[in-house]
C-alpha cells in the first residue's frame, strides 16, 4: 500500500517555509536518490522535535517531471494554467522542485530547511525561500478566517490523495498548486466591514455565510464551489499561510487535490471566465495581486523510494 507524504494532509501549523528550487542539468540520478531520503529525514527530525509537529513535502514541477522521472507521469499533471480575463492576469512560473516545511517552531523550520537544502545543494539552486505564519486564530491578513469550512481527519485524505482506482502508480500522491498574492491592505482597511463582508461573502467575526439575500454572485467564497447554491464544493485541500513584513503583505496559497482539474476550475471562477461566473470576477482580486503561480505533483513516499535507483 502506497504511503503518502505526511505533510500533504497535515493540520495547520504556526510556521511554514517554502523553498523553490531549480535543478542543475545532468543531476537526475543524484536527485532521485536524494529526494527518496527526504521523507525519512523529516520523520527522524519530527521525532527528535516531537513538540514542534513537524511535517514536510517534496513536490516536482510539471515542466521538470519528465526529466526526473521519464518512465511515468501523472495523467493530470499540466503546467500552471495561463488564463486571462479582460481585466486580470494570473501569472505562471516554472520551478523544478518545491520543499514545504511546516511546524510550530520557526527554529526547527530553519534547521530542517538547512539540512534539506544541504542534501540537495550540489544539484540544485535556490530560487526563492518564502516564509508564512499563522495569523491570530487562523485568519488571512484581510482579517477573515481562512477556509472556515476546512475538512478534518480522513476527509482531508479523500480530498487530497489519489487512490489506486484513479492512478495506481501514483496512489497517495497529490496535485499541488502554489500561488503568491500581495495584498493592498491600505485600500482594504479603508473599506467598512460591511463592504469587506460583501466581497468575501461571510461574516468577518465568525466566518459564517452571509444571508442569501445579501450574497453577491461575484463574492470570493463562491469561487470554491461548482454551483451557486453551495452544494458542490471544489475538491481542494488548502494550506494557505500569510506572509508579511512592514513593507509588503500577502498570502501564500497552496492547494492539494486528487482531482487534477479542480484548481483550474477554481482559478476560472476567480477570473470570471468559468461557466458559473458570468456575473464577473472575484472582487477580492481588486485588493490582491498574484505575482507567482506554479504547478507540482507531490508523489507518495513509495514512489520516491521505488524510483530511487533508476
From TrEMBL:
Reply yes or no: does the keyword Zinc-finger apply. no
Could you tell me which residue ranges the Dyp-type peroxidase N-terminal domain spans? 47-134
Query: What family does the entry list?
Result: Belongs to the DyP-type peroxidase family.
Q: Which GO terms describe its molecular function?
A: peroxidase activity
This chain belongs to which protein, by name?
Dyp-type peroxidase
Q: Per its Swiss-Prot or TrEMBL entry, what cofactor is needed?
A: heme b
PROSITE patterns in the record: DYP_PEROXIDASE
Amino acid at each position: 500500500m502506497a504511503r503518502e507524504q505526511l505533510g500533504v494532509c497535515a493540520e495547520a501549523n504556526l510556521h511554514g517555509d517554502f523553498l523553490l528550487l531549480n535543478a542543475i542539468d545532468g543531476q537526475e540520478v543524484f536527485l532521485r536518490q536524494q529526494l527518496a531520503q527526504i521523507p525519512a529525514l523529516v520523520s527522524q527530525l519530527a521525532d527528535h522535535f516531537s513538540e514542534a509537529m513537524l511535517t514536510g513535502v517534496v513536490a516536482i514541477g510539471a515542466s521538470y517531471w519528465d526529466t526526473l522521472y521519464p518512465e511515468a507521469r501523472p495523467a493530470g499533471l499540466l503546467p500552471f494554467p495561463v488564463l486571462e480575463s479582460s481585466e486580470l492576469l494570473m501569472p505562471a512560473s516554472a520551478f523544478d522542485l518545491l520543499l514545504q516545511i511546516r511546524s510550530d517552531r520557526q527554529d526547527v523550520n530553519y534547521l530542517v530547511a538547512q539540512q534539506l537544502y544541504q542534501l540537495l545543494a550540489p544539484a540544485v539552486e535556490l530560487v526563492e525561500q518564502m516564509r508564512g505564519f499563522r495569523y491570530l486564530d487562523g485568519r488571512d491578513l484581510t482579517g477573515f478566517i481562512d477556509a472556515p469550512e476546512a475538512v478534518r481527519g480522513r476527509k482531508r485524505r479523500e480530498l487530497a490523495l489519489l487512490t489506486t482506482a484513479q492512478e495506481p502508480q501514483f496512489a497517495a500522491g497529490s496535485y499541488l498548486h502554489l500561488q503568491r498574492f500581495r495584498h493592498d491592505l491600505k485600500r482594504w482597511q479603508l473599506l467598512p466591514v460591511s463592504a469587506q463582508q460583501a466581497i468575501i461573502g461571510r461574516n468577518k467575526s465568525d466566518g459564517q455565510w452571509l444571508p442569501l439575500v445579501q450574497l453577491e454572485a461575484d463574492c470570493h467564497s463562491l469561487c470554491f464551489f461548482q454551483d451557486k447554491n453551495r452544494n458542490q464544493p471544489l475538491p481542494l485541500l488548502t494550506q494557505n499561510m500569510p506572509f508579511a513584513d512592514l513593507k509588503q503583505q500577502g498570502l501564500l496559497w497552496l492547494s492539494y487535490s486528487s482531482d487534477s482539474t479542480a484548481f483550474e476550475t477554481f482559478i476560472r471562477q476567480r477570473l470570471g471566465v468559468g461557466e458559473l461566473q458570468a456575473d464577473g470576477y472575484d472582487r477580492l482580486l481588486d485588493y490582491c495581486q498574484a505575482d507567482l503561480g506554479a504547478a507540482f505533483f507531490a508523489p507518495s513516499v513509495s514512489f520516491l523510494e521505488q524510483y530511487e535507483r533508476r
